[in-house]
Design brief:
Blueprint: H1 12-24, E1 53-57, E2 62-67, E3 70-75, E4 78-85, E5 87-90, E6 95-101, E7 104-115, E8 124-132, E9 135-143
Antiparallel strand pairs: 1-2, 1-9, 2-3, 3-4, 5-6, 6-7, 7-8, 8-9
Length: about 150
């Protein structure tokens, strides 16, 4: 009897964004250029699948949340958002979320690092980089257990 092995892998753009964002955020030790220490082989676990991840970006404005295998992506023209099934990938220094949005690839990476939305006095614990069909957008992210700093409402 032969056993089949199934492995869900993120798309190539998601992996590239995850590595690029992690390297850009100043991660890496020992001159290797790879996030985490040279002995690290553990995936990123700071955002569990059971926790709600919130994200926001400007120019153009976009926002949403993700939990488990579902992400809701919203814009000013679609404030209620669009639900997208996503695959999660825990890399060495961040989380990748990959799916399809209106026929285009949808790849988001979330990495630890101080982030500002440039519009409020809030400070966020994660950066978010979004790639929708080759259109790259930058933003910030937080979870309930790792919230942004005050003010709560502008």
């Amino acid at each position: 009897m032969k056993l089949a092995r199934t492995c869900l892998l993120p798309s190539a753009p998601a992996i590239a964004l995850l590595l690029l964002t992690a390297c850009h955020s100043g991660a890496g030790h020992g001159g290797s250029g790879v996030p985490g220490d040279d002995q690290s082989n553990q995936p990123f676990t700071a955002i569990s699948p059971d926790e709600t991840l919130h994200f926001v970006g400007t120019e153009p404005f976009w926002a949403g949340k993700a939990r488990g295998g579902t992400l809701t992506y919203s814009t000013p023209s679609q404030p209620d958002g669009t639900k997208i099934p996503v695959k999660r990938f825990g890399g060495r220094n961040g989380l990748g979320l990959s799916g399809t949005f209106q026929g285009d690839t949808f790849d988001m990476t979330v990495t630890p690092g101080a982030c500002s939305d440039g519009m409020s006095d809030r400070r966020f614990p994660f950066t978010a980089t979004l790639n929708i069909g080759g259109d790259i957008r930058e933003g910030c992210a937080w979870t309930d257990s790792k919230p942004f700093s005050e003010p709560q409402s502008p």
